[in-house]
Design goal:
- The structure is a homodimer.
- Chain A is α/β, with parallel strands linked by helices.
- The first copy, chain A, has 2 domains: about 160 residues, Rossmann fold; about 120 residues, Orthogonal Bundle (N-(1-d-carboxylethyl)-l-norvaline Dehydrogenase, domain 2).
- In chain A, about 55% of the residues lie in helices and about 15% in strands.
- Chain A contains 13 helices and 9 strands.
- In chain A, the strands form 2 sheets. In chain A, strands 3-2-1-4-5-6 form a 6-stranded parallel beta sheet, sandwiched between helices. Chain A has a 3-stranded mixed beta sheet with strand order 7-8-9.
- In chain A, helix 8 packs across helix 13.
- The longest helix of chain A has 29 residues.
- Chain A starts with a strand and ends in a 7-residue tail after the last helix.
Chain lengths: ~290, ~290
């Protein structure tokens, strides 16, 4: 069985790494803060003290990091310890251009790289049924598939380098716009005196149904702002989408609106909360807090 | 079995009336244009020449009409032929205030009225599994339930008069905002050179999934603009939502954006097409027509 490395043991990365261990892969791990490294080590992972060390101990090396600067920094270390044939799998959400640059750098060092960002909640990460969108060489994708299958259920090969990242950004457009739709819907429903839980149930059965509604609607109603996906990370994804749409000359009006609102929410200090906290900003604008009649 | 009347045999009304007949109810029908009346008559319905005649022959009278003026006009006729105890069921999408006015008028004439708008496509109407959101007296709702069950699968009692209409407007917020999200997502995906059908499949499995994406995304890609739900009707629903949000003092930014775009689409002559035609406007703004790589 292929030797796996994992760098970035956060909200998503830790349960993903755990699932790789559970499938019987040998796993070398590194994280900037040590607590999750110790936790994975207690389950049988080899703790490493640098990205270079993970690279030396891996044939497939996964990165799951917040943003491009962290990926670039980690990969600088990885490239130091890298042997020919190492396959990097970056599961972070980054721009497709960045994915292509990093893949070119990996190839120039005798390795290869896939961009393989994921969609789904921390619960999906824990249950190993994430959606994974993969860009890169099809051959490398097929060779790496058993490792990806430890983490995800719906795994799609989207095309050459960058195609996985592009698909993830498309996904985030739907995520963010639907999220705002849920907020505005609950606001009207609350002002109308409807039972909000029932509205979520009703709308979910019909043409207004969405993952965002079914999963985050109930949390907005119960004021549960624990992060499945953090506001600051959605802000970052929307920033990347807007940079790309600017480069491509695409006017994305709904994206522009929701990204300004998410930015405002982050600036108000809600960056560490789940994206369902967008309801708070919509409530502030309306001077009305939703409540379940 | 209760005697049923049906006025408004359009894209949705005709299959709904057909399902009532199929369940064995006697049915009296009226429509401004005669072709659907003849069609229902050939299946066993009693053709009527006026709303008043339908009222005389019914215990439960359903209206399924485009907008408030048509409902008001039809109900004027209905009130002429109305006997005490007649239950009106308006399944049109109208404002909650209008629903309450009409219900009060029906009650003052010894009858009752439910607002019971539906969600779902023409296919759901044909298959009898519409979502139905009902406002009015709970007793009248329970008495009328067998008739509603001939048309819908998910039937919800939402509260007093107007609550059904409010719930439907909430539903339309989710419908319209998600629809715009699908358009912007497909635009970026197309510019990125991704396979659009695959993007719809991928995003549908994860946190960006929605009814709008799964059902209208494929039609946008195949350029099928046949109406399941017409642009002109969504425009009307959004107008009502904006009037209500103005009255209630609610700033609904995503609703404002999508309603301006739907209005522009209608003004460009696409009112009779399905709402998936919104992609055309988004394409025009971006000077890029989506295509399936």
């Amino acid at each position: 069985m292929v030797k796996v490395g994992f760098i970035g043991l956060g909200l998503m990365g830790k349960p993903m790494a755990r699932n790789i261990l559970k499938k019987g892969f040998s796993l070398a791990v590194y994280n900037r803060s040590r607590a999750p490294v110790e936790e994975l080590a207690s389950m049988g992972a080899a703790p490493c003290s640098s990205p270079a060390e993970v690279a030396q101990r891996s044939e497939v090396l996964i990165t799951m990091l917040p943003d491009e600067p962290q990926v670039a920094e980690v990969l600088t270390g990885v490239f130091e310890g890298m042997r020919s044939g190492l396959v990097l799998v970056d599961m972070s959400t980054v721009s497709p251009m960045f994915s292509r640059q990093m893949a070119a750098a990996a190839r120039s060092r005798g390795g290869d790289m896939l961009d393989a960002p994921v969609s789904g909640s921390t619960m999906a990460a824990e249950q190993g049924n994430l959606t994974i969108m993969v860009g890169g060489s099809r051959k490398t994708f097929e060779e790496t598939l058993p490792v990806l299958q430890a983490m995800g259920k719906n795994i799609f090969y989207m095309g050459e380098s960058g195609a996985g990242s592009f698909a993830k950004l498309c996904n985030q457009i739907a995520v963010a716009v639907n999220l705002l739709g849920v907020c505005e819907m609950l606001l009207l429903a609350s002002k109308a005196g409807l039972n909000l839980s029932q509205v979520v149930e009703v709308v979910s059965t019909g043409a207004g149904g969405s993952w965002q509604l079914a999963n985050l609607g109930p949390r907005m109603i119960s004021r549960d702002f624990n992060p499945g996906f953090k506001v600051k990370h959605l802000r970052k994804d929307l920033r990347i989408i807007r940079e790309i749409s600017e480069k491509l000359g695409l006017p994305l009006q709904a994206v522009a609106l929701v990204s300004e609102l998410i930015k405002a929410l982050d600036e108000k200090g809600h960056g560490e909360e789940g994206t369902q906290a967008l309801i708070k900003l919509v409530e502030t604008l309306a001077s009305h807090q939703i409540s379940n009649a």
